UniProtKB/TrEMBL annotation:
The modification N6-(pyridoxal phosphate)lysine is found at K201. NCBIfam families: FeS_nifS, PRK02948.1. This is Cysteine desulfurase IscS. Gene3D superfamilies: 1.10.260.50, Aspartate Aminotransferase, domain 1, Type I PLP-dependent aspartate aminotransferase-like (Major domain). It holds the Pfam family Aminotran_5. It is found in: Cytoplasm. GO terms for cellular component: L-cysteine desulfurase complex. HAMAP family: Cys_desulf_IscS (MF_00331). Its cofactor is pyridoxal 5'-phosphate. Transmembrane segments: none annotated. SUPFAM superfamilies: PLP-dependent transferases. Keywords: 2Fe-2S, Cytoplasm, Iron, Iron-sulfur, Metal-binding, Pyridoxal phosphate, Transferase. Homodimer. Forms a heterotetramer with IscU, interacts with other sulfur acceptors.
Amino acid sequence: MKVYLDYSATTPVKPEVFNAMTPYLRDYYGNPSSLHSYGRENKKAIDTARDQIAQTLKAKPEEIFFTGGGSEADNWAIKGTAEALKNKGRHIITTSIEHHAVLHTCQHLEKQGYEVTYLPVNEEGIISVEELKSHLREDTILITIMYANNEIGTIQPIQEIAAIAKEHKVLFHTDAVQAYGHLEINTQDLPVDMISISAHKLYGPKGVGALYIRKGTRIHNLIHGGAQERKKRAGTENIAGIVGFGKAAELAYGQLTEHVNHLTELRDYLLEGIQQKIPYTRLNGHRQKRLPNNVNVSFEFIEGESMLLSLDMVGIAASSGSACTSGSLDPSHVLLSLGLSHEMAHGSLRLTLGDQNTKEEIDYVLEQLPPIVQRLRDMSPLYENLKEGAR
Ligand SMILES: Cc1ncc(COP(=O)(O)O)c(C=O)c1O
Ligand code: FES
């Protein structure tokens, strides 16, 4: 059996999305900036996708700007604001658990003379809004806090954060790459200025995303060149990608409740099964305030890398916050921010569900995982000590 449980890394393109895209790779090749019919057809297709995405966010179509993915949207929101407001102030507030697209952008700005406050999170991965308030300064120009975390699925108190930002007249950007397609995001109720989203997390193609920019928000361009995207983001459009993104967004929000119910049921079944069958397990993140598709657990006394390889051998694709999988030398900054020891951070397993997963697949995982964990623990000297202590 093969079970894909890494939907937060990326999702497969849905057949309907693929079908919507193919004509734009095969037949309609005009440049949307051209005035002839070849171009006009494609301009229309982009406008349709823009409408589809605007509707899911209850936004105006002219507030949606297509980008080359979530990372670009994050870079644009942060660098574009920093540059536009540099005479007003140079202080930015973010959190210690952001995606690297946000963290590394902030670190880049620090080198340019900006000051960045990285808010800590509690052991469930949530920031304190009181603490956020206490860090606001005269020269704070931007708050950038993710909607939901990609590793532990934790959902931040976005409504409260947005209200604080508005009250203090500070711009608020949220990286909603993981939340989009799982949670309702209504820009009419939520006073947010910028939102990053990405197509490949909701069954759309990779390499296309968008930045929602509320009308009237001051932001400089990131990509300079032609007059595309109302002169805000240059470059001949990725038409097929944009069409696919529009279709994927429409489908995701058309079936949101069913999708979320399906995921939540499987998630809880998986999590409860793991907790029941495997002792010395810790759930990372908040039990309720979490994405419907995220299970992130740490198993004491084992290494995440060996666990992933063993799972892969029995056909289960998962991920972990460990050094070996991410190709970096450090364990996950998110798990360390929760206060986990390096050992526990290394023993973490992220299982993220998607629309194709079934209860049979979860049963298979619940059958395969416990002996794998046990086998790895049997090889661990720390576990040996624990058993001896218990004797
Ligand atoms: C929270 C978050 N932000 C940003 C990104 C980057 O998006 P993209 O892969 O489209 O550049 C990701 C994807 O891994 C993510 O999970
Ligand atoms: S999981 Fe391999 S070094 Fe941490």
